[in-house]
UniProtKB/TrEMBL annotation:
<protein>
    <submittedName>
        <fullName>Dehydratase</fullName>
    </submittedName>
</protein>
<dbReference type="InterPro" id="IPR002539">
    <property type="entry name" value="MaoC-like_dom"/>
</dbReference>
<comment type="similarity">
    <text>Belongs to the enoyl-CoA hydratase/isomerase family.</text>
</comment>
<dbReference type="InterPro" id="IPR003965">
    <property type="entry name" value="Fatty_acid_synthase"/>
</dbReference>
<dbReference type="InterPro" id="IPR029069">
    <property type="entry name" value="HotDog_dom_sf"/>
</dbReference>
<dbReference type="Pfam" id="PF01575">
    <property type="entry name" value="MaoC_dehydratas"/>
</dbReference>
<feature type="domain" description="MaoC-like">
    <location>
        <begin position="15"/>
        <end position="109"/>
    </location>
</feature>
Length: 142
């Protein structure tokens, strides 16, 4: 599968479709099983609070993975992402209720690079706070 977006059709400032990703405690348990990261801050409310967190928090790598979905959905090919990096700035808090947490992601093309590549800057928010800083992906376009 190749990128479905053409380099010539993209301008700096192009906004990608925004998306929101719900996160529940069940999601975190499933992710723990898939990733092997069973740190109790991701599933044990008592432990999370004892170590100074407001509640159970989502795995950083889970948050990072959900955020890049905005880019992979836009480009149509996960393999088109050739670089991706973030700084973890705030945790995604996941209360034990019907709503859980929510990761809200926006992104835009920040630069056109050589070799039909673009840099996409992402903004990931949860509960009104930026949860990923310096979130950037380099994407190879058609």
């Amino acid at each position: 599968m190749a990128a479905q977006i053409k380099y010539a059709d993209v301008e700096v400032g192009t906004e990608l479709p925004a998306a929101s990703f719900p996160v529940t405690r069940a999601t975190l348990v499933q992710y723990a099983g898939a990733s092997g990261d069973f740190n109790p801050i991701h599933w044990n409310e008592k432990f999370a609070k004892e170590v100074g967190l407001p509640d159970v928090i989502a795995h950083g790598m889970f948050t990072m993975a959900e955020a890049i979905r905005v880019v992979t959905d836009w480009v149509g090919d996960p393999g088109a992402v050739v670089e991706y990096g973030v700084r973890f700035t705030k945790p995604v808090v996941v209360p034990n209720d019907d709503r859980g947490g929510l990761i809200e992601v926006t992104a835009k093309v920040a630069a056109k690079l050589d070799d039909n590549r673009v840099r996409v800057d992402l903004t990931a928010m949860s509960a009104g706070q930026k949860v990923l800083g310096m979130s950037r992906a380099v994407v190879a376009l058609a």
